[in-house]
Amino acid sequence: MKKLGSRKNDIDAAAIRANHPMPPQCGLFYFEVDVISKGKDGFIGIGFCSKSVPLNRLPGWEIDSWGYHGDDGHSFCCSGTGKPYGPTFTTGDTIGCCLNFRDGTAFYTKNGKHLGIAFRDLKGELYPSIGLRTQGESIEVNFGNRSFKYAIEHYMKEEKTRLWHAINAKPIPPISSPSTSVPISQAASETNLTATVHQLIMSYLVHHGYSETAKAFSTDAVQLIPGDSSEMEDVESENPSLDSDKDMINRQRIRDAVLKGEIDFAIKLTNTFYPSVLPSNGDILFQLRCRKFIEMMGLCAGRQITCSDDEDEEVVEVIKDHLMIEEDDDEEIEDKVDDDDVVIDEKKSSKRRKGVETGLNGLDGNIEAAMRFGQELQDDYRDDNREEIKKALEETFSLLAYTDPRKSVVSYLLDPSGREPVANALNSAILVSQGKPPIPPLEQVYRQSSVVLNELARNGVGSSAFVNLRKDCLV
């Protein structure tokens, strides 16, 4: 953005304000101004203001306006009286302005050098603002479309360190005993907090069926508080060396099967060890079946279906349409595909088959199995009018629209990461059937912390921008 100055008189001064305010959610807001020419006198003001401030004077000379001026190096805070702040600036200089929403301060930089805090106790919705007054003044503003001269990323890291230091310096509050709800003494709270953290970790390991890890953690990390063993009763009750060892192993086998894409095996194990789970959780069974179809299509990915006499597209349409037709329409499919024309061409072999009866005979074994299972899936949920079911089926069957779905816009469906939500949902259903919570306490703490951070950011609390739960706490 460029701006040119006018004449020398005060009444000829003018300012320009950005279209959008600086969002507190970013934590720090920084921009730089390149002085292309100081013009006749260099009466250039750089700063910020509220939306209601008149734009006929330099930044800092009005209420709710702050600025740093190049002709005298003074800072102006909501008045025409300035205070010595930094050096003057002129043609060729780059002046940066930064608002720190964590502590409500603002500072400037000159040619990449930090000049110190200029303003404090800043609040409200503020907009970047530049003012010029004399003839020939010319500037250009950089909001990040090119590299800054000042290392703002380094400053961001420093601010993040300061915030975490402040968080860690807070005294640990007393923790109430889960059995008596009586506050524990401050002297014992740190030890108690450690026990609580151990309990959270143990419950997480048990919840997800990590039996060997849980055993090792129980042996090496979990220690009871001397004189008050009640603080770790929950950990002891979930100790894998007790009743939950076999259950953890069974749930881990089921989880591993889903994560490997072996959906039929996962269903078989679930029905063997937990026979009531799938019949009473139809939505999870639906997720498993959709995932099974996706895994089957993954096995088919890359195989080419070709036909003689230029009927390639016709056969592909048969495969696409087959899942959406009624059984009475089979004759229509037979009319579309000639018995001797279907050829399956793979990388190392090709086969010609005869006797097309349903529009599927003659297809590669993996493709044929996927088509038949897909038709079964479609038939079973044809009359289910729930939007989430319709949407899931539409998304799942979209894999049929591409010769090689691995190279299509729906390739993400084949990604193994899609198995994890299904595995987690099944594991939670098993635990609920045993009267246990569907989500481990540690995950609840994480989710609640995420909600709190989002709410803080939504309400303009700048400090929230310096905390990233995934990067800071999980990695």
UniProtKB/TrEMBL annotation:
GO molecular function: carbohydrate binding
Keyword field contains Electron transport: no
Origin organism lineage: Eukaryota, Fungi, Fungi incertae sedis, Mucoromycota, Glomeromycotina
Highest taxon of source: Eukaryota
Domain B30.2/SPRY residue range list: 1-148
Keywords, in A-Z order: Lectin
Protein name per Swiss-Prot or TrEMBL: Concanavalin A-like lectin/glucanase domain-containing protein
Residue ranges constituting the CTLH domain according to the UniProt record: 247-304
InterPro entries referenced in this protein's UniProt entry, alphabetically: B30.2/SPRY (IPR001870), B30.2/SPRY_sf (IPR043136), ConA-like_dom_sf (IPR013320), CRA_dom (IPR013144), CTLH/CRA (IPR024964), CTLH_C (IPR006595), LisH (IPR006594), SPRY_dom (IPR003877)
SUPFAM superfamilies: Concanavalin A-like lectins/glucanases
